[in-house]
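Regression test case RT-17, inverse folding.

Input:
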């Protein structure tokens, strides 16, 4: 890990666009300790068992038929950066046409900003279900950042195998959602593209951003609901300690969370969970799964705060 090499990669950024994505990856990795993934056979088998058990339990609880993603990987932090830099590039591609009057300066600033964001996330992401939005191939992936899982379990003073299994269950709930709703990836992609296109034209499309926020609130809230019913152990202590971790840290970490919108994601968890808890309490988890039957079944912003309105509309 070398801050000098990271800065050197950013200052060497080149190309025609405002972001040099190769330099982004090089700079992010230079400033990030990759961590150890020298797993023995027992540890690899444990990851595989957690994933299989999570799939079966989520199938049982939700009534949704789904299989595992094509790609399931145990990664170090550098692997995670490699896997995600292409996603950042796809999302940012429309903005790359906005070079501005000083392209070299813009390239330096933008490349550095993206490298800092990727490095921060690589040091904090535990597991990730990646629907590969905006990708040409129709594929999904599941990642576990092993060094982060081990380090976080130690910091939280919780049992590592139990914590690792909890992460697997959470990510498999997302796999269930996207498998049950083949339209969901396209729904999110269309709104992401529209929102970014509006930015390239110099304005913010608040309606589209609102639709995207509502959809992601449903995604995160449903995952929380299923976790509560599917995980094969009580885990209030894990949730509480992890939430304390998210809110803790120094001023730089708090600033990065704000800039990356991680506070908004926490709100999506909480608001979505309240909605789906109310629906499941009234009609059961399988009734809540009707949200994935069609785009029209997603709750509106108003319905998220009034679950009975959603139930009334869906059951009409």
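Golden output:
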């Amino acid at each position: 890990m070398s801050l000098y090499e990271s800065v050197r990669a950013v200052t060497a950024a080149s190309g025609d666009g405002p972001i040099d994505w190769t330099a982004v990856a090089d700079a992010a990795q230079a400033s990030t300790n990759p961590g150890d993934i020298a797993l023995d056979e027992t540890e690899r088998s444990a990851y595989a068992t957690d994933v299989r058990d999570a799939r079966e339990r989520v199938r049982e609880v939700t009534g949704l038929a789904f299989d595992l993603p094509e790609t399931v990987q145990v990664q170090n932090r550098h692997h995670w950066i490699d896997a995600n830099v292409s996603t950042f590039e796809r999302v940012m591609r429309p903005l790359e046409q906005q070079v501005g009057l000083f392209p070299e300066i813009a390239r330096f600033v933008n490349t550095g900003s993206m490298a800092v964001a990727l490095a921060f996330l690589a040091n904090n992401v535990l597991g990730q279900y990646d629907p590969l939005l905006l990708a040409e191939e129709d594929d999904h992936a599941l990642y576990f950042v092993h060094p982060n899982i081990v380090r976080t379990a130690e910091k939280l003073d919780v049992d590592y195998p139990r914590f690792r299994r909890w992460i697997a269950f959470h990510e498999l709930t997302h796999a269930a959602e996207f498998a049950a709703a083949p339209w969901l990836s396209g729904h999110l992609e269309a709104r992401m593209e529209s929102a970014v296109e509006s930015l390239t034209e110099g304005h913010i499309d608040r309606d589209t951003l609102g639709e995207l926020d509502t959809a992601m609130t449903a995604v995160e809230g449903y995952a929380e609901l299923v976790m509560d019913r599917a995980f094969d152990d009580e885990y209030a202590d894990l949730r509480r300690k992890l939430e304390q971790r998210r809110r803790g840290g120094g001023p730089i970490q708090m600033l990065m969370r704000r800039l990356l919108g991680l506070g908004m994601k926490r709100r999506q968890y909480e608001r979505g969970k309240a909605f789906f808890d109310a629906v499941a309490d009234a009609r059961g988890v399988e009734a809540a799964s009707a949200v994935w039957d069609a785009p029209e079944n997603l709750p509106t912003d108003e319905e998220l705060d009034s679950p009975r309105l959603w139930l009334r509309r869906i059951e009409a």
